[in-house]
Every structure is written in structure tokens, then in C-alpha cells.
Amino acid sequence: MEFLVASAIGLLTAAGIYLVLRLRTFPVIIGTSLLTYAVNVFLFASGRLTVGAPPILRAGVDSYTDPLPQALVLTAIVISFGMTAVVVVIALGAYLGSDDDHVNDAPEEEGTP
Amino acid sequence: MSLFLVVALPFLGALLPGLLNGAGRKVCAGTTFAVTLTALIGLLSNLPALLNGEVVQARVDWLPGLGMNMNLMMDGLGAFFACLILGIGLLIIAYARSYLSRNDNMGEFFTYLLLFQGAMVGIVLSDNILVLLVFWELTSLSSFLLIGYWKHLPEGRQGARMALTVTGMGGLAMIGGMLILGNIAGSYDLSVILTQREAIQADPLYVPALVLILLGCFTKSAQFPFHFWLPHAMAAPTPVSAYLHSATMVKAGIFLMARMWPVLSGTPEWFYLVTTAGLVTMVLGAVIGLFKHDLKALLAFSTVSHLGLITMLLGTGTAFGAMAAVFHILNHATFKAALFMSAGIIDHEAHTRDIRRLGGLRHLMPVTFVIATIAALSMAGIPFFNGFLSKEMWLEETTHTYLFGPEWLVPALATFGAVFSAAYSFRYIGHVFLGEERHDYPAHPHDPPAGMWLPPAFLTVLVVVIGVAPLLAQPAVKFVTAAVLGGVEEVPGAYLAIWHGFTPALFMSVIAVVGGLVLLALFTPLLKLWDAAPRPEAKTIFEAIVEAFARLARDTTQTLHNGAFTQYAGILALTIVAAGSHAWLTGSDAGPARDASPVNIIAALGWLALILATAFLVIKHRNRLLALILMGIVGTVVSVGFAFFSAPDLAMTQISVEVVTIILLLLALNFLPDTTPSESSLGKKLRDGIIALAGGAATFVFSYHLLLREAVTTPISEYHLENSYKGGGGTNVVNVILVDFRGFDTYGEIIVLGIAALVIFALTETLLGGPVRARLLNRVPDKPLAGDRHPLMMVVLTRVMMPVVLMVAVYIFLRGHNEPGGGFIAGLVAAIAVVMQYMASGFAWATERQRYPYHGIIGAGVLVAGLTGIGAWFTGHEFLTSSFGYFRIPPMEEFELASAAAFDLGVFLAVLGAVMLSLESFSRLARRAHVEDSEYAMDIDPSREDDAAATATALNPGKEG
């Protein structure tokens, strides 16, 4: 099971990095979203994997999974939505303003400061 | 008066001249004078205690954790320097009142001057080296303002910049040295450090500390090779030069060397560094000074030379040297301030400082002549003036100093320097005041008003009094010397006198005076020789170095920061992988401690779905809609995975966020092209692929490694699990952590989320207010639109579902403290309920029915959460401490009320508002000019029904709605 989760994190990261390195805004946004998944799952996994022991206190149960990474990841998920939205509006503004959705600045002409 | 007040007065007083600028020049200067006088009187009020043998102290803890406390102390040395700073400050203020013209902003000038004065007094009275460093940097900054006071002069600006660069760099070095010193001594208090001579000198870090501190002192006191900034600082108004270069700024380095004398001196390192630097500076300054034609440049190099003399005396490490240094500090301050002021008078009256255009002024300016002559003769070392006394002590000391090479080397070099020193002093008299009266002065010179000549005249009186009756100064000099020596050595028994018999020093003095006269007689041929000799120009070298650094910085920045974000991302990814790999390869590993859990078939299927979706996503990412759908699959698998691995809260959050994210990206895709063109070459794709695989492999290995090992230290989660119910009153530990244990964190998060939403709103508004608006309004959709914009089934369904979904949100919210759920998830679910209405029934219809602006909802959320936190104050707890209790209202069951629920309500509102504001902003972009906003839901585009009706609509738009 650990192998499955770790390989999923690795693949999401690789796909995320590859898409972030594309030249247009939309794939970059998708790439950052994939990286977000990878980071969130990784943070969550730092509490180690446990099946069937949610951190909801029950009488007579004394084994629970680590709740702290969950709390941290929960806010991270919500914040990442906010950040994605900001990036998207910036990308949209750039595209609508100049009809160009390239991520990089055009290379400067030789000789210009 | 408390020492705090003495130090604070100039700083507080600095406000006044600036404010009183409108009240006139007299008030301005008078206030500054009064402030300085009060500080001086306050200082002197501590003298009786000092003379009783006490060290006056004032202590207040500032940052005790760092050992940085506002501790002040006044011993003999501090008092001596503070008196010089404030006393000469008074004379300078009086002088500047007459010197500054009506075009100069006097309030500004005096404000800078007082700031500088306060910083200097702070340096000499500090008992904590960290506080001393703060004042040290303040003098660099305020002297920058003073030197560059005439902002219209390029020399002023360049000189100020050079002074700041050189002294600022020295200050940085000194910070390092002081920190080392404090670490060795175990305290940053000078009074403690000064008792640790043996420990400090035995420490292996003594030499680095010494070099760093000396760098600070040498740059400040213009010692070779950092002497070049001082002459360039002469572009300042003359009162500034007189103040900074006689008694204050450049003496700060000297002061620090004297202050640190008991702990740093006496070692070979100290001796060779300080003595050599001092001697070289002394000779170099004297030789260059003779050939300068600008009066102030001549004085500047003579200052450099005299500072070298004092430095050398401190460097010898003998008690006699220290006493001579103290005495010369006093004498130099008196005659040099007078000389600078006389140079200012000549400049002010004759409108030139060029010696070649002056001469024969003795009859035109008799008062100035007397003042300048007395001061210059003192500088030359003529008996019956104070300069003679300390200079002879210096010559005496050189005969006992052996530095590299033969015994006669130091005395010979010193005599050589003294010859030039006498020569430039005589030149100051001979070429300016003596000789033929000329008729081509730029302005007809005459003596200045009393306000300008009285201050230097007062100083020349001191010059003569000390020079004739040195016994008067002896007690003070010995008292200060005792403070410098700090008990390490006995105060020397030698007394200050004009006549010591036929000593070697007397012969050297005679040689210096005679040699000086000879040099002046031969001045014209010597000058030709000097002008012909090649000399390195310090300013050119300095500017070349600065330019080289600037170019290096510019090139580095432009190479790394060239606007290619893809490149940044690639470099970032590779750097992280490289740093991680380094740690991985050099670290040690204990081997797996956990057994891998068995693979479950459902988990394997989910994994497969995720792998396939991600792989397809990368391959097919050019089709943007498909990419979005595949991303949705990934997100869904991730949320199912959360649920599988015991994280129900995360699963619910992830799935809700997934929904709103996909809606958001769909809205964005509405405006963006549907496909991504293929632009990268195969080579570039391969390169990116390798970077991506490196990153992926690194995270895989790291995650796998982590998952098979236990935490390095015990996680604090045990505490959370134990106290969740007892202390937080909830059984859902994740929610209790969010609203209670880490409530402050969550509070910050909702504020960030709110800010993000407001940023989106603001950017959308900007877009709609600019040229983009026209383009958006006239946009022709690039894909066919659905015939019925608001499908009947969807409208009916969403409206029926709305109350149900809201009910679910309320349920999730209420159970959140004890079961999976809470404000975050409830907020997202409620947002989805509202967004469905926008999607199904249209923007106009939904906006019409929206009662509260989303900004307000965000604000209300943050406010509710904040007020809940503040509420804890009223029960005597800290911010955001939650409390709860159990209540029973018959006939209901007993139920729980927790303040955390109110906080969670704030979270709910903020999340709802933020999500809605973001999505709504995007939808506003989508409204177009030629499509009417429909008030009616379930509208059908008739153009699909028949062409006739379509024509009718086109002719009569709006009727169909």
C-alpha cells in the first residue's frame, strides 16, 4: 500500500513539473494543480497510512490515525483553491489584455537595455 | 540628569528645527543650541559622581533574550568624548547660524545635525556593544545626510555615497567582530567584556574578532587604505566638515580603539596592525596634504594624517602612548575645528577656497588671520601651542617603537611625516594670509560677523591656554587615560610640560619645523615634481570597484531573471532535487521500521485509475477540456484515497473543492483557446521530461522512505488526541485542532482566503474598467452555444435541490465538532448550492435574488471569528481560547454549546463568501453586449426552432427576452 501511495505522489509530481514547464498558461495552471495534489497527499502521508481508524473519538477505541497532518492539509486544500483562482484570473487578464497566453516574456532584442 | 535623557535629548530635539523652520532662522538655530546646551548641562550634572570614582550607569532591559539591553555608562573616556561632541557641537551650531545662506533649509540642516549628535553621544555612552553598533550605524546614516546636504552638488552626493559605502561596509564587518567578542566574553555588556582580557586574547577567535573590529574603526577613522572617503566628504558645508572631521565622526573609530584598548591591545597582532596603519596613514596624509590647493582638502588630509598619529599611539599598547593619544585627541579637536571654521570663513568671504587664488589676506581679514595662525602653528607643533605638547609626546613614543626593520625606522618616518605636517601648516598661513595683497579675489574679503569668528576664537583661546599651561589640562588627561587603560596598566607618572630637557623628541621637533620651512621655500619646484609623478587616484579606483560589483549584480540578475518563468521553474525543480539528493546521500538511515501494509484490490484499482488518468493527462494535455476532465478524475481518486486512509474530513473537503475548482477552470476555459499549440521541439520536451522524472523519482523515493519509518520524535498528535474531548469538547479531533488547538492558524487562513477572493474581484474590476471591456463585450464565442441556455430539467432540479443541499450544509456544519464536517466543508457545500443556481438559471436571475454582497459575507466571517477570539479575553483567557459547556432545555436531550462553534461559523461564512466572490467575478467577465440578460429562467433560444422567429428576434431584440 505504501508503494502505491508513494508512486502516486511521484507520478503526480512528475506530471505536475512537466506541465509547469509548458509554455502556455493553461497547462501551467493544470500542472500546479497536480503539484498541489502531490504536496497535499505527501503532507497527509507524513502521518503514516492507517486504514479504518479515523480520528473521531469513540468509547473503547484507543487507536487513531494522526490527526494533525489532516488538519494542516484541510486548510491547505481550501487555500490552494484560492491561489488557483488568483493565478487563473491573472492568466485570463494577461490573455484578454494582449491576446497572448505565453508564460515567458518574449526574449529581448539584442542591444536593448 | 539621567544618561538616557542625555542621549535622547538630541534625538527628541531633532524634531524641533524641522518643525520650527517657518519660525525663522534665529529660532531654529536658537532651539538647536538650547537642546545641545541642555544635553551638555545634563552630562555635566553627572560629573561629581564621576569624579568620586563612580561609573555613572543607566540600565533598561530591551531585548534581554539577545543580550541587547539599553545600558548606558559614563566613565572618564565616555565623559571626555561626550563633552567634546556636545561642546564643539555648541560652537558649530553658533557658527552654522551665520554660515548657512538664506537659500539653505536651516531646519533640515539642524535636524540632521542633532540626529548625528545624538548618535555620537550614544556611541560614547553605550555600555552594550549591540546598542553601540546601532548608534554606530546611525552615525553612518546621519553623516550621509549631512555630507550630502547640498543635494544640488554632484560632488556632495558622490562624497556622501562614498562615505556611506566605506563606513557602512566597515560597520558590517564590525558587527561580526562584536558578535564574536560578545560570544567569547559571554556578555554584550562592555563593563563585562572589559574585564575579560585574558580570556579574549587567549581565544582562537581573537584574531578574526580583532581584524573585523579594526576594519570598522579604520573605515570610520579614515585609516589607510580606507582614507580616501574623508577628502571627498569635504563637499559638505563647512560646519559639517568642522564637526565631523575634528571632534566626532572620524573620532568614533579612535574612540572605539581606545574603549577596547584594555582587552584588545598588547598583542603582536594589535601592535603590528594598528601601529603600521597609523604610521602609514600619518605620513601619507601629511605628504598628500601639502600639495592640495583646496583649503578644505588640505585640512582633510591633515586630519587623515593626525588620525593616523593618534591610531599609532594607541597601537603601541603602552600606557604612555595611550596618554599621548588622549591628549592629542583633545588638542586636535580644538585646533582642527578652529582651522576648518577659518577655512569656511575665507570661503564665505572670498568666495573661493583655492589657495592659488588667495594670499595677502592678513590686512583684509585680521581677526581670521590671528585665529588661523594660532591654530595652524599648533598643528605645526610650535611651542606654546597645545599641538606641540602632544606631538612631542608622540615623537617621544616613536623612539621606543620598533616596527619591522631597524630601530631608527619608526622615528625617521615619524620625523619625515612631521616635516610635511609642519610644511602644510606653514603653507596654510603663508600662501593664504601672507604675501602680496591681490586685486583679483572673486569677492572682496573682509572679516565675518562675530557669530562666525567667535566660535573659532574661543577654541584658539583653549589652544593657547593649554599650550602655555599644560598643567591645567593634566588632571583631566590623566583621569581619561586611567579610563582608557582600564586598570590593565598604571597611569604613567610623566607630566605634561613644555620643557623636558634636550630629549630626542625635541631634536625631532626642531628638524620638523626647520624642514617644514625649507619645504615651503622649495614649494614651487616640489609641486612640479609632485604633479609629474604618477599617483593612483583613489576615487577612480573606488568607482571602478563599485562599477564592477554593480555590473556583476546586473549581469547575474539579468541572466537569472530574464522573464522566462519556465526557466525559473526548471532551475527551482533541479535545485530542490539536488539539495534533497545531497542530504539523502550524506545522511544516515536506520532502515525500515514499519511493515508495508497489504495491498487491497480496491486500493489497487483506485491507484490504477489515478496512474492512467495522470498519464493520459500528460499525453493529451493539448486538448484542454479533456485535460480538465482527467484532472477531475485525479481529484476524485485523491479524495476517495483520503476517505480510505481514515481521513473523512479531508475526503469531504477535497471533493467539494474539486467541484468548485473544475467550475472555475471551465469558466476560464470559456475565454482561453481550446487547445494548446505544440511549440516545443522534441529535444526540449525530452529535457523537460527528464527534469520532471527527476523530480518525480525524488519525491517517490522520499515518500516511500518516509512511509516505512516511524517519526523521528514523538508527534504532538498524542496530546491532541488526549485533550480533544477534555479540553476542546469535541470528538472530531481534526475539527478541534482547526477551531481550537490551532485556531489562530485557521484565523489566518480564512483571512488569506478572503484576501485572495478580493484580489480576484479587484483584478476583474480592473479588467472590466479597461480596454479589455470592449473586447469582452463584442466577443464572438468560438464554439457553438447550447440552444437552451438554461435547460428546463436543470433549472427545476437545482431549485428543488437548493434547500436540500443547504440543509446538508447546515447538518455538516453542526455535526462538525464531533463527527466529520465543520465550517470549511459546510461553506464549500453551501457555495456549491448557490453556484448551481447561477449555472442553471443564469447570472442575472441569481444576482437579482442575492441579498448580501459576498464581500460582506467574507468580512462578517472574519469578524465573527475574530470577535469569538476576543471574547476569550473577557473570561481572562488568551485570544481564541475556546470554552464549552453542556446545557439542557427540557424536553430536549442535553446538548453542548462551544465557543468554537461560533468560530467555525466565521470560517463557514468566510469560505462561502470567498468561493462565491471568486466564481461570481469570473462569471461577470462572461456577460456580453449582444446577449440580453434574461430575467426569465428556462428561456429557450428560438433561433433553433425556426428561422422566421430568429429573424423577428434579430429585428426586434429584447422582446423575446
TrEMBL record, chain A:
Membrane topology annotation: Multi-pass membrane protein
Localization in the cell: Cell membrane
Chief location category: membrane
Cellular compartments per GO CC: plasma membrane
Alphabetically ordered keywords of this record: Cell membrane, Membrane, Transmembrane, Transmembrane helix
Membrane found in the keyword field: yes
Transmembrane segments: 26-51, 72-96
Protein family (similarity comment): Belongs to the CPA3 antiporters (TC 2.A.63) subunit C family.
Name assigned to this protein: Na+/H+ antiporter subunit C
Automatic annotation (TrEMBL), chain B:
Membrane-protein topology: Multi-pass membrane protein
Record's GO cellular component terms: plasma membrane
Sequence ranges assigned to domain NADH-Ubiquinone oxidoreductase (complex I) chain 5 N-terminal in this UniProt record: 65-110
Span of domain Na+/H+ antiporter MnhB subunit-related protein: 794-916
All residue ranges annotated as the MrpA C-terminal/MbhE domain in the record: 685-764
GO biological process, one term: monoatomic ion transport
Cellular localisation: Cell membrane; Membrane
InterPro entries assigned to the protein according to its UniProt record, in alphabetical order: CPA3_Na-H_Antiporter_A, MnhB, MrpA_C/MbhD, MrpA_C/MbhE, ND/Mrp_TM, Proton_antipo_N
Domain MrpA C-terminal/MbhD as annotated: residue spans: 609-673
One Pfam family here: Proton_antipo_M
Keywords associated with the record: Antiport, Cell membrane, Ion transport, Membrane, Transmembrane, Transmembrane helix, Transport
Record field: transmembrane: 77-97, 109-125, 162-185, 205-230, 270-291, 298-320, 367-388, 408-429, 450-473, 505-527, 568-587, 599-618, 625-645, 651-669, 690-707, 750-772, 792-814, 820-840, 852-875, 895-919
Gene Ontology terms for molecular function: antiporter activity
Domain NADH:quinone oxidoreductase/Mrp antiporter transmembrane: 126-401
NCBIfam families: PRK12648.1 (NF009288)
Function: NDH-1 shuttles electrons from NADH, via FMN and iron-sulfur (Fe-S) centers, to quinones in the respiratory chain. The immediate electron acceptor for the enzyme in this species is believed to be ubiquinone. Couples the redox reaction to proton translocation (for every two electrons transferred, four hydrogen ions are translocated across the cytoplasmic membrane), and thus conserves the redox energy in a proton gradient.
Protein name according to UniProt: Monovalent cation/H+ antiporter subunit A
UniProt source species: Thalassococcus profundi
Classification lineage: Bacteria, Pseudomonadati, Pseudomonadota, Alphaproteobacteria, Rhodobacterales
